[in-house]
Structure formats: structure tokens, C-alpha cells
């Protein structure tokens, strides 16, 4: 996943915190991981209700790069947290689901030459 500073990033969970790391190169040219941010999962709410034990024993299962959303799986199901707004949403009750986030878009364009010509005849 990309880091908040634009570099290579990594997300992991330790106890009840999400740790966001970034790959940095020091003044000697040695690369290492630097902790950028910690998110206390105990402080997250789901529709205004504290999550309590819902996120215990969570693991990171995926990341949506364009929307800055992290997908977590716990015993209570699959959750999505937006790393910018810190909003948490429960996506699935079931565990063991494959999460493959993707982004798609549609740009309305000009008519394709030739196809419309045949339709008018």
C-alpha cells in the first residue's frame, strides 16, 4: 500500500492498534521502516456505537489505494476503515471472504465513427 507521504507503505495490527509504516532511506543510504501513525481501534465507532470487542484479533486483508480504505477481518466479520475520515463500516458478517477492492470509472465520450452511421441508415 502507498504511505501517506507517497512512499511505499505497510499496515499491520498489534494488539488493538493499526500501525501505518513507511519505507525510508536514512542519511547513510540504509533503508528501513518508520512508524508514521498509530490508530487506536478502541476509539473507532460503528455508526456512533463503540466497536468494543468487534475488532479483537483483527487482521489486515486488503487496501483500496484511491479511496484510502483499509479492510480488516475479525471474528465479527469484515470491516472497512477510511484512513482519512476514520469512518468505520461493517461490510460482511462472514469471515474468510476474499476482498479484492477495485476502482472503476466511466467517461462519457464521443460517438464511435462508423457504428452510429450504420444505425442511421
Automatic annotation (TrEMBL):
Protein known as: Uncharacterized protein
Upper classification of the organism: Eukaryota, Viridiplantae, Streptophyta, Embryophyta, Tracheophyta
Amino acid at each position: 500500500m502507498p504511505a501517506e507521504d507517497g512512499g511505499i507503505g505497510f499496515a499491520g495490527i498489534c494488539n488493538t492498534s493499526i500501525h501505518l509504516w513507511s519505507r525510508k532511506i536514512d542519511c547513510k543510504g540504509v533503508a528501513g521502516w518508520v512508524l508514521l501513525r498509530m490508530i487506536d481501534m478502541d476509539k473507532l465507532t460503528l455508526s456512533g456505537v463503540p466497536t468494543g470487542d468487534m475488532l479483537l484479533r483483527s487482521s489486515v486483508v486488503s487496501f483500496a489505494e484511491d479511496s484510502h480504505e483499509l479492510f480488516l477481518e475479525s471474528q465479527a466479520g469484515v470491516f472497512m476503515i477510511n484512513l482519512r475520515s476514520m469512518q468505520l463500516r461493517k461490510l460482511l458478517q462472514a469471515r474468510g471472504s476474499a476482498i479484492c477492492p477495485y476502482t472503476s470509472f466511466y467517461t462519457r465520450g464521443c460517438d464511435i465513427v462508423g457504428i452510429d452511421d450504420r444505425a442511421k441508415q
